[in-house]
Every structure is written in C-alpha cells, then in structure tokens.
Amino acid sequence: MIQRVMLVRHINRPEAQAAAQAAARELSVRDIDVVPEGDCTGDIDLVLATGGDGTILAAAEYARKFDAPLLGINMGHMGFLAEVSADGILSVVDMIADGRYTMDTRMTLDIHAHFPDGTEWHDWALNEAVVMHTDVAHPVHLGFGVDGQAVSTYGADGIIFSTPTGSTAYSFSAGGPVVWPDTEAIIMAPLAAHGLFTRPLVVSPSSVLSVNILEDAWSAPEVWCDGLRQRTVPSGTTITATRGCRPVHLLRLDDTPFSTRLVKRFQLPVDGWRKRPSER
C-alpha cells in the first residue's frame, strides 16, 4: 500500500508546478503523506514526477535510492517515460490510493571510469551514458571492446551506451535500434564515427562494454549519465558499462503495449496496415 509519496517537479514550468500542487492536494485528501523532493527522512513508497523525461530521469535517482516505484506525469513533448498526461491527475491519484497498478522493472547501467592516475569514478544510468567530445572541431579517438575483446577504433563525436528504456532517446537519434523495454540488453551506438566498423550493436546484459580514450592532442571528452551527471575523462581513461546492480521500477496504470506507445509518441504512419489491396 502506498502511504508516502515524494513529489518531484520541473521547477521552470508553471504547469508542472500546478500539476504537482493538484496531485499533493488529492493525495492528502486520501490520507497519503506527501514528501517534498530531497526529504530523505523515512521510507518512500512512490516517487511522483511532473515534467518531461528529463524531470522523470532526475526523479529516478530518488526512486532508485529508496527502491520505490516511479510514476511520471507528462508535461513535456515526447514523454516516453511518463505514464499519463496532466489532465488525468484525479484518476491517477484514485488508482494509486486503490492499488490499481502494476510495476515494470527496468534495467540500468553501471558506469565505471578508470583514470590513468589509478583513481576511479562510478555512476549509473537509466537511459544512457554518453562519452562525448568537447571540441566541436575535432573528433575524440576511441577504442571500443566487448568482454575484453577489442572490436574497433575510430574517431567520433562520441559513443552511447544505452538500456532498452533509453533506446528511444539519444541512441535512437544516433541510428540505434528501438529495443522493447522488457528486453534485457545493452545497446552501443557511435556518434558520427569514422572507421571500418561503426554500426550500432546490441549485446547481452551480461556483457562488459568498454571504451578507451586514446591519446589525443585535443581537449578531453566528457561522460554524461542520463544528461544529468557529468565527468571529464582524459586520454588514457577506460570507461566500462555493465548491467546495473539496481534496477528502477516504473509504475504502470494500464496495460497499453509498448508498440502502441511507440506509434503514438512518434506519430508513425500506420494507415493501410492489414488492409486488403481492394480496401486501400
């Protein structure tokens, strides 16, 4: 039973703040405690985010920390991570209070950077981790490998390591495949790469993907996790991506299949599908 809800909202969108306030009122009426963002005292049963996918990714940090499910109310444009739009807040609160929901478990990525001076940096991602150049006039030189086997070297704008959840985000825009979110896999998609083998790859969730920052005369690239957390990585650094040790749980309020969500979000043309030639 959900008794304590943490609210996370987009601070620069008045409509997101209004939606959060409306949700707080409705939750309180149903004797569900509302906890403001960042209040880490006590247990949290649900993290409720109002905003776009960026806000939901920020809220995922709290959901992962408390091992609580995450529910997004979409105030943005694409909203692949969101479950409902703002006009459905009343029904959302009713379903939360009545326990009419299910949970999806989404795999994450653990990201480790091993620096040439022997120090390390650790982070994680629900959508993707991106190694990206910082000098727009020059590529970064990378060596890519899987499970200890070197696969390719190339100059590129960067490289993306993505989960299936993130396959419809940055990885997709880089030419990566859409992977159904209940599939467990790791996707690698190069960014504007020059080399003999620069295709996206989908590998087992048990694989270890690695990228070496090769000697480069230009500026050091950066690693970004979910577009929220950043670290500069100098030449000689090795970054590895593995299946995350802790998943994130998304609250689901209906059984709409992912294929339906995909068509709706991307507004895919489906007229004529399954029609006989005489009906087209």
Précis, in short:
It is found in: Cytoplasm. Helix content is about 20%, strand content about 35%.
How would you sum up this structure, described in words?
The chain is α+β, with helices and mostly antiparallel strands and 280 residues long. The protein has helices spanning 14-29, 53-66, 89-98, 170-173, 258-266, and strands at residues 4-9, 33-36, 46-51, 70-74, 84-85, 102-106, 109-114, 120-125, 128-132, 140-146, 149-156, 158-162, 186-191, 201-203, 209-213, 222-225, 229-232, 238-243, 248-252. The strands form four sheets. A six-stranded antiparallel beta sheet has the order 8-7-18-15-10-11, with no helix packed on it. A six-stranded antiparallel beta sheet has the order 14-13-12-9-16-17, with no helix packed on it. A hairpin with a 5-residue loop joins β7 (109-114) and β8. The longest helix is centred in the first third of the chain and has 16 residues, at 14-29. It is globular, with a radius of gyration of 21 Å. It starts with a strand and ends in a 14-residue tail after the last helix. The model has no long low-confidence stretch (mean pLDDT 91).
